[in-house]
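User: For a benchmark we're assembling, each entry needs the component sequences followed by a predicted structure for the full assembly. Here are entry 17's components. Please fill in the structure.
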Amino acid sequence: MNSIDPRVHQALDGEIPREALPPALRRVAERLESAAALLAAAPEGRSVADRVLARLHRHAHSPVRRLARWLTAPHPVTLRIRPVWSLALAASLVLLMLLPEERSTPVLGEHEGIAQFVARFPGAHSVQVVGSFNDWRTGTIPLEDRDGDGVWRAVVVLPAGAHEYMFVVDDERWVPDYSANRFVEDDFGRENSVLIVRPVKG
Amino acid sequence: MRVALLLACVAAPLAGQSVRSRLEGRVPAAAIPVVDSLVQAAGREGLPTEPLVGKALEGGAKHVVPALIVSAVETRLDQLRSARALLVRGGDAPPATPAEVATVSGALRRGLPPPVVERVVGALPNEPRESALHAIADLVAHRLDADSSASLVIDAIHAGLRGGRLLDVSHAVLEEQQRGRTWAESFARVRDELPDVPPAPKPGEGTVQRARRPSSVSKAPTPP
Amino acid sequence: MNVREGPSDAEVVARVLGGDREAFGLIVRRYESGLLRFATRVLGGRDAAADAVAESLVRAYRHLASCRDPTRLRTWLYRIVANRCKSHLARRATGDVSLDDAPPIADPTDNEAALERVEQLAVVEQALATLSSEKREAFVLKHVEGMSYQEMAAVTGERIPTLKMRVHRAREALLKALEDRS
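Assistant: Structure for entry 17:
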């Protein structure tokens, strides 16, 4: 590392006047200042103002907030149901109760938890997650993109604890989960994402 | 005692066989004998063997060349040995449990400095340290100072927090930071509130209903 | 309109907290260009910087009541963006700055002086990208955003002597990187 004469730092920090520097040191200070001036003058691209204000608008008008406001404010509520409709309503409720549950809820063990994988791969045909929890095998945890918006999801029961993993896109591309906040070297020149599953019970 | 010895004699070759059968077809044949011998060595030393088998399977799945797989498994074995030495230095009775060796090795791989790990080992004698070490590693990954992070988590331990609640501590610090506080302020706020840090939300009923267990087996994926 | 004119930061904050959401637009317009410039230099990419700044401003709005001293709104906003950038860099597989996503260059032009300026800027950007994220942050806050060490301490939460040392090392590293490229 080149060391800079301390007087240059003092001048740049405003501790001594610039004129106190000999010409050679003054040039060093000027070089750094002109670099900073170039960076300061460069255009910075599009404004984010519209994006931010739109988010604030959505935040203020989100259905959840409206519902919360409605629930916390007092309202007179009147229910008027005609006898014929009340019969139909009762019949529907009975039907709903009699209908078998389409998907059964998994029974979680004491040392198991839920992992939710979400990744954005627009245009991908398949996305899977492989890791230490499935011996790095494909075909065991596919992600789904039901509405075709490029966002792939899976909700999986896994043993509690730390697991390393990656996504496999279209059976050939290995990609870490960049939304994970934890990474570790995989010793093969790449990085695995790290997931910590907490037990649901306890 | 005799029964235990007999079982140990029978178990060693059986374990060896099951390692080979797990590797066959999934790891290049050239790597299997060396990986197998490294796994056996770890077993004899009382070290956890699953991280070594897992590393070999990972290398096979990623279609890594045999030499690199062997080298990665050797590296993992060295890491496990260092982790055990650290645990013993920190006060665990040798040979230290395989689970704790794997935990400490994982923390070192995540970049925690050994003295910091040793402090946590000493603060939690004879208790699982996994969550504490991950909580500190999460803070360090956000470029917070390792010693200050360890001090906060150890304070949380002294305040009675354990397991996943220690992860709530690191999460609370990062939340405070995202609200515009400096890391020193964030640490101070969370420390003042100990042991009352907000708990992580549990998965809702709908999420649990949607959860599926991984289905079994299939082909190995193509290399990266 | 010059957004630096008009009501003070403290007045605008009071208006927003009083329910005038639109007044927050004034804060956004007043500080976004500096925040974008700062985030772009620290993250090394315009898209990532825009995401970080947009996310930070939304957070700032939601937590505006916790800004204890509205007269120091500027440093508070920079701190939120600096923290957001740290999280972003922590998430990234490597700490390297992507030159593919290189920051902004003025529109190409046949003006020779402008072209030369564009080339010089590219050299400086490449040199800056070789610094660690901490040094980049320190250099940019000091010399590009023109902050005092006190303000930098408010943004980063570091002590002034630490920041001084970091700025000094950043200058040395940048000068070396510039010399390597000349």
